[in-house]
Amino acid sequence: APRKKIALIGAGMIGGTLAHLAAKKELGDIVLFDIAEGMPQGKALDISQCGPVEGFDAKITGTNDYADIGGADVIIVTAGVPRKPGMSRDDLLGINLKVMKAVGEGIKAHAPDAFVICITNPLDAMVWALREFSGLPANKVVGMAGVLDSARFATFLADEFKVSVRDVNAFVLGGHGDTMVPVTSYTTISGIPVDDLVKMGRSSREAIDAIVKRTRGGGGEIVALLKTGSAYYAPATSAIAMAEAYLGDQKRILPCAVKVDGKYGLDGLYVGVPVVIGAGGAEEVIEIALDDEQKANLDVSVNEVKGLLEACKQIEPSLA
Ligand code: APR
């Protein structure tokens, strides 16, 4: 079979990291697109020159022309601006909404058959807007947030329980904001629910609550330390896992921002839920049973996303 084609819209910190990871894993040939002139071309050359050392075969090119994403199998979108210290993801809405319009139109014109993964923040609103602007079917446009949020949760839990991160299966629902819902009853260590481990005395409710809080603010913690931008290694790694699930028809159940229609009492909103990712894109949303507290927490998160969508419609009446 011919090589797959991966187009990365936005060649900044996450975009460059994505290109390097995708090349190392030989997911396909890579096109780095950006509006900045020269920068995607320069990064493409630099990353290409890792090939002889690392031993990968992937053609990596940089471009400022949407025509070059033509025929892409997977598109990962990081175009836009990242946070600076003191900003919330929502502060990016106005600027990044305009970027999603340009990107959505570029995808619609040149790569309407691609599986599109959006990373640009505020995530749940931007992936919804990107779907609207691109006109692609909802199963082909997803947002990356839950894989990253659950990876952050898992990292902190592995530390707390002094176990390998490999044995932690962390579960996060809801929007990619400070109201996200880490679900401890579905979070396990080698199959043992964290709530049971607390009952067994291996940690305390207070320690787990503090970890939940740290997970919710996990992006902001990194922004405050970096000062010049936001996280990029783990966000890129998380999106690559989603791309691999699609390309390999893996049927992985991953927490992703997808359009939820009917399940969880939602009607067409993009929010983070467990979803089967395979060759059909977002193939099936898995609806889990939630207790009253979890439901109430999810409601808070969903209402925050709804507020962002209203703000998008105010700025861009064509979305209403
Ligand atoms: N089309 C294409 N690229 C664009 C556009 C546009 N209309 N507008 C901006 N860009 C490019 C910038 O030139 C820059 O190279 O998007 C890139 C963004 O890269 P960084 O500023 O390094 O940001 P990054 O850390 O990669 O984060 C990107 O992902 O996690 C989110 O909140 C984060 O929204 C941010 C996005």
From TrEMBL:
The active site is at 176 (proton acceptor). CDD domains: LDH-like_MDH. It holds the Pfam family Ldh_1_N. NAD(+) binds at residues 10-15, 34, 96, 119-121. Its EC number is 1.1.1.37. Substrate binds at residues 83, 89, 121, 152. InterPro entries: L-lactate/malate_DH, Lactate/malate_DH_C, Lactate/malate_DH_N, Lactate_DH/Glyco_Ohase_4_C, Malate_DH_type3, NAD(P)-bd_dom_sf. Belongs to the LDH/MDH superfamily. MDH type 3 family. NCBIfam families: MalateDH_bact, PRK06223.1. This is Malate dehydrogenase. It comes from Sphingomonas kaistensis. The gene is mdh.
